[in-house]
Amino acid sequence: RVFGLAGEREELVRGLHHLAAAGYRAQTGEDRRARRQLDRARRRLLSFPDAAWLVDLVQRDLDSSGGELAEP
Question: Contact, 54 vs 21, CB < 8 A?
Fold first, then answer.
Protein backbone atom coordinates (compact mmCIF):
# COMPACT_ATOMS: atom_id res chain seq x y z
CA ARG A 1 0.00 0.00 0.00
CA VAL A 2 1.15 3.48 -0.83
CA PHE A 3 -0.69 5.22 1.98
CA GLY A 4 1.69 4.16 4.74
CA LEU A 5 4.71 5.28 2.73
CA ALA A 6 3.70 8.86 1.99
CA GLY A 7 4.90 10.25 5.33
CA GLU A 8 4.15 13.96 5.63
CA ARG A 9 2.47 13.87 2.22
CA GLU A 10 -0.09 11.23 3.18
CA GLU A 11 -2.99 13.69 3.15
CA LEU A 12 -1.97 14.84 -0.34
CA VAL A 13 -1.68 11.28 -1.62
CA ARG A 14 -5.05 10.31 -0.18
CA GLY A 15 -6.65 13.44 -1.61
CA LEU A 16 -5.25 12.74 -5.06
CA HIS A 17 -6.45 9.15 -4.78
CA HIS A 18 -10.00 10.37 -4.07
CA LEU A 19 -9.71 12.87 -6.91
CA ALA A 20 -8.68 10.16 -9.36
CA ALA A 21 -11.57 7.99 -8.16
CA ALA A 22 -13.97 10.90 -8.68
CA GLY A 23 -12.73 11.41 -12.24
CA TYR A 24 -13.06 7.73 -13.00
CA ARG A 25 -16.58 7.56 -11.55
CA ALA A 26 -17.60 10.62 -13.57
CA GLN A 27 -16.36 9.05 -16.78
CA THR A 28 -18.22 5.81 -16.10
CA GLY A 29 -21.48 7.66 -15.47
CA GLU A 30 -21.60 7.13 -11.70
CA ASP A 31 -22.34 10.75 -10.83
CA ARG A 32 -23.45 10.16 -7.25
CA ARG A 33 -20.34 8.18 -6.38
CA ALA A 34 -18.17 10.68 -8.25
CA ARG A 35 -19.56 13.58 -6.25
CA ARG A 36 -18.92 11.74 -2.98
CA GLN A 37 -15.32 11.06 -3.97
CA LEU A 38 -14.90 14.67 -5.09
CA ASP A 39 -16.16 15.91 -1.71
CA ARG A 40 -13.63 13.68 0.05
CA ALA A 41 -10.84 14.87 -2.24
CA ARG A 42 -11.77 18.50 -1.69
CA ARG A 43 -11.62 18.08 2.11
CA ARG A 44 -8.26 16.33 2.02
CA LEU A 45 -6.72 18.78 -0.44
CA LEU A 46 -7.74 21.98 1.38
CA SER A 47 -4.21 22.28 2.75
CA PHE A 48 -2.75 22.07 -0.77
CA PRO A 49 -3.84 25.16 -2.72
CA ASP A 50 -1.67 24.11 -5.68
CA ALA A 51 -4.07 21.20 -6.22
CA ALA A 52 -7.17 23.42 -6.48
CA TRP A 53 -7.05 23.53 -10.26
CA LEU A 54 -7.15 19.72 -10.37
CA VAL A 55 -10.24 19.67 -8.17
CA ASP A 56 -11.84 22.27 -10.45
CA LEU A 57 -10.99 20.23 -13.52
CA VAL A 58 -12.65 17.11 -12.14
CA GLN A 59 -15.64 19.22 -11.03
CA ARG A 60 -16.03 20.53 -14.59
CA ASP A 61 -15.72 17.00 -15.91
CA LEU A 62 -18.47 15.87 -13.58
CA ASP A 63 -20.67 18.84 -14.48
CA SER A 64 -20.25 18.26 -18.22
CA SER A 65 -22.67 16.06 -20.10
CA GLY A 66 -22.18 12.35 -19.70
CA GLY A 67 -18.82 12.63 -17.94
CA GLU A 68 -17.03 13.69 -21.11
CA LEU A 69 -13.69 15.27 -20.38
CA ALA A 70 -13.98 19.00 -19.91
CA GLU A 71 -11.58 21.33 -21.69
CA PRO A 72 -8.93 22.68 -19.28
Answer: no
